[in-house]
Structures are given as C-alpha cells and as structure tokens.
Amino acid sequence: MSDTVLQSLTLSHFRSHLAAGLRFDGRPVAIFGANGAGKTNILEAISLLSPGRGLRRAAPVDFARRPESIGWKITAETTRHEVETSAEGDAPRQTRIDGKSTPQTALSRILRQVWLVPSMDRLWIEAAEGRRRFLDRMTMSFTPDHAEAVLAYEKAMRDRNRLLRDEVQDGAWYGALEQQMAETATTIHANREAALALLVAAQDDAFPHADLTITGHDEDLAAIWHGNRRRDMAAGRTLHGPHRADLEASYAAKSMPAAQCSTGEQKALLVSLILANARALPEPPVILLDEVAAHLDADRRAALYRQLIDLRAHTIMTGTGPELFEDLGDAAQRFRVGPSVVEEG
Prior knowledge:
The chain is an alpha/beta fold. The chain is built from 8 helices and 15 strands.
C-alpha cells in the first residue's frame, strides 16, 4: 500500500449528504445501498480531490445540497496532507492543501486517482471528446504537470478563437499565440504517447488486452495554423490541434475495433485499462469503481477483486447490495448508505 492513502472523508451539504464522515483503514472499500441513497455522491466527492469537474463533470453549483443550497465542503485527510475543497453559491470552487489556498492543478500531486463509472460504458462509441478526457486523465496520473499543459493550451486557443471570431487580421497577434500553442501541443502529445506506452506494457492476462493509438495528431502545427487562418476564421474556431485528437482502441486478441465489440467486451477493455493504469503508476492510486461489479459476470468479478487486492491500491466501489462483494470476504471494509446515514458494517 502506498504511504499516500485516503484516511478520512467528511462531507457537508454535498449532494444528498447533509453531513457524512467516513474513516478508511486501507483495505478496499465496498459502499452499498439502494439506488438513490447517495453512493455515487461519495465517489464524486472523492473525485473532486483531483483537478477538474469530477466524475460527473458537474458545475460547482450543482454539488450543493438542496433545498438549502448554502454551499458545500469536502474535507479529506491523507497520510501526508489535509485537503479541503468547497464553494458557495455559484462561485468557483476553492481548494486548500494543509490550510493554504492553492490552484486545483496542485491536487494532481496529492492523490492520484483513476475511475470507472457507468457513463463511460459508451466511451468507445461516443464522440471523441469523451475519449480525450479519458486519455488525459490517465496521462495526468502519470504526469501531474499534464493538467497545466492542457490548461495553457486551451487558454491560448480560446484567445486565438476570439481573434478568429472578431476577424482580426494582425498576423503578429496570431503568431504569438500559435507559437505558445505549438509548444504546449508538443508537450501534450508527448505526455499522451508516454502514457499509452505505459498502459500497453502494464496490461495483464486477467482481462483482454487493448491495442491503443492516438489519431489526429499533426506535425508542425504552427505552420498549419498559419496556413489555415482564413479557414479557421470562417469556422470561428481552431480546426487542428491536440483538442481534436482521438484515442482508438481495439480488442487485441480479435483485432477488432472496440466500437464493434459486444457491450461486455467493451466493459472488459475499460476495466483492463483502469487496472493497467493503476499497475503502471509508481505508487498505487485511489481507484473509484461505480456499480462495476453488477455489470461483470461472476468469473470476471472474482478476477477483478483478485487484481485489486494484488495491486494494493485503495479501491472504493459501490453496489446496490452486500452480496456483490461477498468474494472479497474480510479483505474489504464495508459501508452501508441509507437515507441520511452512512455507517460501517
């Protein structure tokens, strides 16, 4: 087990939870309860201990418990740090590490996380945007500075898009932004490629292997953007760059694109990549698995649990009933979630 683990979580006015506190002992965690009890809300709160909008990609105002809507706060302790993130009304969320205000990007160095939620079941057949987010989150787990590179690129691109929409003709303005974008784009692509190499190497035979490729990457982007300014101006946006890249996957044993695989095979590929991500990290991450056990057959569920125990990662799972986690025996810590209560047992 890594010496940076999640030890406790406290919620205040977050989603369905007026107040809730959980203490973790390092074992895999099984959270169970009826649909709508607030299990996923706990996972979402943990996901907000990393940069970004969490596993549901919600706005800070949506996290506030209703009808009060007076603001919300999440506090967590790890073996190294105390982390707090909160927001009031429609204000941006604030982050504090060890009592000091800090940008969200600093969270990527505190608690590395990977997660798998039901909405990701359509990852291989939805638009490329979802796969880019999936790829960038895995990349960030290996290279925390990746988040800063992506933010810098997106800021420069927004500025360039504003010039395009305003039909600004001054080439010097474009040139400065395009040079900045090209430098960060090179970093982004290198980080993504390095992450894919680690993922491919870390796949295990317990779940199907995936062949992975990044498509849509262009060399010499500065020259492309310079030559395409009129076309981009007509579109009102930048049409080339890492923001248009895609992650392609195939079921290696069948040489079949993931999008053409069965629903069960697509799920197994996702589980394989999440496990490979955790296995390839220098220290075990926090793994969030929302309702994953219910969508695996008994053999694959047992294989998943064996992998999680062997990884010694701090895994936190949800399911509707305790029977889904029987194969874990005493290796798991359990919490029951009900109306207005979270209790261990």
